[in-house]
Amino acid sequence: MQEAYRLRLEVEISPRVASVFEGSLAIGRGRQVVLKEECLNFKNTVTAVATFGSNLLVVGLPAAVTAFEVAKNAEIFYNEVADGVNCIAISSSLVLVGGNCSVVGFSPRNGGAEVLWTVAGDNVRALAAFGERILVGSDDYDIKLLDGEEPVVEVTEADRVTALAALSEDRFAFGLANGTLGVYHRHKRVWRVKSKHELVAVQVVEQAVVSGWANGAVTSRNAETGASLFRATYGSVAAILLGDLRGGDGPPQVIVCSRDGEVRGLVPGAAPPPEEEESARLEHHLRARKKALTAALRLAGGDDRSAIPADTRVTVDVQGLDFVFRVAKHAVILSLVVVDSETGESVAAAYPSNAGPELRVAFPREKKAATLKIQAHVAARASSDAVHVFDLDYELPKFCAFVVSEDAPKPTSFVDVALDVSLQRLREWVDRSFIAGELPGTYASGDEVLSIRAEERDDNRTTDVRIWGTLATVSEVVQDLATYLNLQHLETTKAEFPVEVACLEELLERVAARNAIRLKLTADMAGETRRLKTLVVKLEDARLLADMTLVRRHLAELFGVNAQLVAEYAKRATNHEALVTALQDVNKMIQRAANLRVGAAKARCVADCRKAIKANATHALAAIVCVGTSQYKSQ
Amino acid sequence: MDLERLELSQVGTVSHRHTMRLVAGKPGGKQRVVVGDDLGCVACLELKRGEAVVVFKQTLGGEGVTAVATGSGGGAKGDRIFVAQGQTIVGLQRKGKQFFKMESSLVEPICHVSVDEHHLFTGCEYVYTKYDNGKDDAFYMCHDRIGAMAVGPRLSGGPHLVLLGCRDHVVRVVRGSDLVFQQRFEDSPVTALKVFPSAMTDDDDDDDERRREPCFDVAFGAESGRVGAMRVFEDRARVSWAIDDDGGRSRATCVDVARFFQGDGVDIVCGRADGRVQVVHRAAGVANVVFQASLSEAIQSLECGSVVAAATTDIVCCTFAGTLVAFSPEHHHSSSSPRPTTEHSFSLTAPLSPRADDSPRETTENKIARLQHDVDRLEVEVETARRRAASQSPTVPRLEPRAEMRLDPENACYVITLELPVPIELVVFKSSVRVELVECSTALVSRPRPERRHETSKQPVAFVCVFRCQDEANALSFKLRTVEGEPGTATAMVVARGTPGTKSAQVARFDVKALSLHRRVRATRADDRPTNRLAFQGDFSAQMFHDWLGACLPEVPPRPQPYEEGEEKDDDAEQALDYRMCFRNVYTAGTLECDYADGEARVRSDSLSAIAILKEHVSKEAVRLRVSVRDTVTVDDATIPHFLKLIDHKLKAQVDLARRAMLLDAVNEIYTSEEDPDQWISEEYAYIHANAANIRKDLDNSETALDYLVGIVTDFFVDRLKFAGIDARHKIPQLEALVRKHDFDSTLAFFDPSLHRS
Description:
The structure holds two protein chains of two kinds. Chain A is an alpha+beta fold. Chain A has four domains: 268 residues, YVTN repeat-like/Quinoprotein amine dehydrogenase (Methylamine Dehydrogenase, Chain H); 86 residues, Sandwich (Immunoglobulin-like); 67 residues, no CATH class; 130 residues, no CATH class. In chain A, 27% of the residues lie in helices and 40% in strands. Chain A contains seven helices and 40 strands. In chain A, strands 10-11-12-13-14-15-16 form a seven-stranded antiparallel β-sheet. A six-stranded antiparallel β-sheet of chain A has the order 35-37-38-39-36-40. In chain A, strands 1-27-26-25 form a four-stranded antiparallel β-sheet, with no helix packed on it. In chain A, a hairpin with a 5-residue loop joins strand 12 and strand 13. Chain A starts with a strand and ends in an 8-residue tail after the last helix. By secondary structure, chain B is of the alpha+beta class. Chain B folds into four domains: 327 residues, CATH 2.130.10.10; 102 residues, Immunoglobulin-like; 107 residues, TATA-Binding Protein, CATH 3.30.310; 117 residues, no CATH class. In chain B, 21% of the residues lie in helices and 37% in strands. A six-stranded antiparallel β-sheet of chain B has the order 38-40-41-42-39-43, with helices on one face. A five-stranded antiparallel β-sheet of chain B has the order 33-34-31-36-37, with no helix packed on it. Chain B is globular. Classes of the chains: A alpha+beta, B alpha+beta. At the A-B interface, helix 1, strand 30, strand 31, strand 32 and strand 34 of A face helix 2, strand 31, strand 34, strand 36 and strand 37 of B.
């Protein structure tokens, strides 16, 4: 790639609030969208900007999304989005809005009707589309590839997902907050690279992945191999867009917008890297290699005083919530570092004063499978200065936080599923997903208890499984089981989550109450604002008449009304916050209920929940959660 | 100035300084490089067509080489090599034949060697000895460790003047066995000395002075990074000029003098502990850094001479990892024969004339091909060696780390530097006393929570930290701030990068003294700050008390130091005692003065905490040694507001920073949503907006700084009330709240003991 043009805008560009609209840039700034020749003003801060088709400007606000035909100065639709608008993506026919735990699709051709709705585990920060396929990235490190509303691929990454771009039906590029960039082909990660800085934007052009980091680095990589094709450093990247700013009918350019307002257009066609530089780098690399090898050769012979028995091995064992590292006799473990190979972060480390052949370390456990890279430092004596280093890998199963506990009280809520597999397969799954797993078995993690029981039917082909626990945990267990058994479809036979259902109903009541308060507060504020306006006019009149007593009285009154308004605002803000949290909780609950199922059953569960909430049929929700389908339709 | 970097060779690790020297080669030809490493191996190399060719290589066996000197040693050619190995000195001829061996009777290793004809000068840890034809000729013992030695010419025919740079900030000038005079350096000890070659002087303009009185010039480098020159006369010395190291205040490990620009001033070349090589050019009274390069490994030796060609002036340095690098103005691959010297004049603006016949491209290709070949060969060799090693019982290669813990008075923290001859993978660091990590810019840092069950009663684990190095760096350096009070130890596990199975690590240990943030100063009496007094009386000797001080304070020499001549004794009403040492806390700027003699000691400090720590330590030691010691404490109430004021501005800065950081987002929102807020926004907010990045950075760096300050104040509070006979530890939360509000008057009022007497 090479730089084709560069222009400087007199606006700071916030990350992700930019789009190419009718051959020029549309940039959100505060409550405005700055276009080539005009500024559009909005009631609230602009959170996202996108372009639908050729002439529709889509603008996201904190609680609404609106589409605007600028040329005709006509609003095509204005839809409230209770979950907020974090990002907007355009699919072949829809405007997709990522908000707080949800993704909503509006159809501009249908006057903005809501035609798609689905949930996510946390705030949705990254959205992309390829035809009818949708990519959703959320703050709980999840990336989902949906076909319409039906999930096709779900993967968990190592940090918040900040950028996504689709390469084809089932291949996509992703970017994370920790600076990772990579490409997936369905469930399989094809490649990834890491940087220290936050990844801000990813775009795909002609099977090359173009990415921009917060430190200003812009790279282009081969989508298949990840090989670097282009590299440059500009100002801190705010967005990378695809479009044509040159007004010709040439190919679209990759447009890199920096935070400081600098905009660059990049076109394919590379200036080859200067050969001189290349050879200098190679020379440097070879020198470093030579130096390292010379040192290694010199160090190949050792010092006999440090010798430890030749067959020394470090073993890892789990006891309760401790990891126990042991070496055979005549050696001690001096220190230990454990790194999660996925996130690259250090999970635990210890450097005890009382070094011995056994070292116990408590691990912070999460409900996440991980490959741990363990490095143990072993010496012949505790006072030795020369130390042997042992590297070992340890696979931490997904439910490592749960420890077998026979006497834990079994929870009342459970789910029943019937699986077309043998008991033996289930045992294999338990072995893989739990530490020292048992079937049937009861596990505890803190106060939380999880219990699993399985019974093979007489035909030896079907196994009935009942899983007790909280909805959150059970749904994760079901998903993990389904992934392991590679199930395309799974329907629950029975589910009972009385606590969660009650909780959901209460949540919905709370949402309704908060909504009512919001309307009331808005009405109140409107009244106050009217008073304010009148007072200002009266004040101005009094001032013109030079009636200082009256001016003073009006001012005092104005002060009072203003104070009231500020107080009202504070109330409104608190209320809004509570509302958002409640909505987020509702979405999470739906997500979990859906996760008790797999495939079409899951998609149906989400759709039915949404319908029930829209129709305000709260009582039906319990049935949907438990049975997975809405019965209220038939009523 | 433009110098080309040339990798010469690679030897074993070099833990000692001054083990690489240049030695005369063939008459009229280039100089050779002689270097000794930690394995006791001495190699002599000559550069031929840009490639180092071994002239001879000898393994002397036994210990590592501690110093190397070159000289005429009886012959007139100056091609003899003198190698110090611990207490032994060996003389080698130009082909490596041993012609001389001498065992010194001293127990200390010889770290500095210099030769002038049949005179041999050696500097050990504390002792300087001169030998004449192998016989003891002169001896002098310094009060503090010798960091640098230089032998001057024989002024007016007398014995040599020898300069010894000592830890106690003094350069002692010795003639024969007698101290002639000493030159004090206020800011930090001198760590490198080099006498100007006879043909060069520091300043050509003041020839008058030289004619009037015999003198010579010496280049020096100091621990604080300062580099300069001084003029030494027969009875005194004067620092002519010096410049500070703006790029990191890194210790100067070696200096040399050269002339890179013809007829125009002199250049002092300096190698530093952080791996930088600098050329300081001084002409017409102005000194400037004209060249800088970084090898990112500690420079252990550095000399200037003609190595690449007979007429060039090159810089040759040897690093800790044993890498020999030359910086040359000559483009080495251009021609094999040296050009006539007449061509060889160049200026700052015009670097050397371009290369000759063969095209640069081809040379580069050749170079790469050769390197590739070397790498391939080495890979095979390493593999063979590994296989051989694997068949034996597992051992760890000898990888002596270079570990250093140095107090940085400017930033009031300790800088810990760990270096290996190979890249570092990670470092696990623990401390038995509380410390605060101030900064580490080059590695990923994680701080696991120390676990109780990993402790022993004598060795608690108060702080654990893992540094994972990102790039292929041989050195890791980070900054720590210690908390005064408890003495302790810190340990670092340094893991070398390597292939699995052959990885190894080394342990480095450091002591943390109870009053670790104190730094020795010459005198503190200048201002009349109020002081608290602590007096001891009992059956102890001055040496015993000196040792007790040495156990709690840094920079204490092994023996008590009497007043120097000319130094003013205390003109206080009290009678002065025999010995005295003064310290200043680099963080709070509190002072501590200790006067002591046999049976009596007086300590004065404006910091009650320092008094309390010292009192506790001395009492503990006295009980341990069964010595009866009585102590009396006199608290001056004026020290309390005084001490609180000392840290008040630091506290204010932290509180302001926290407040500003809180407003950052709000101010930023105003700036993004309003039109041109600069017109009406208050100055403070405008400042916050303009400096947002800095504030964020400061905040990241100062995450725990406020806690640390609060800790100092609460410790001070507890100590103050302890002296009033009150245990006020349960009142700490109340005080903390006051300090965090940054309410000076209420804080001060809270220190009144009458408030807390129940």
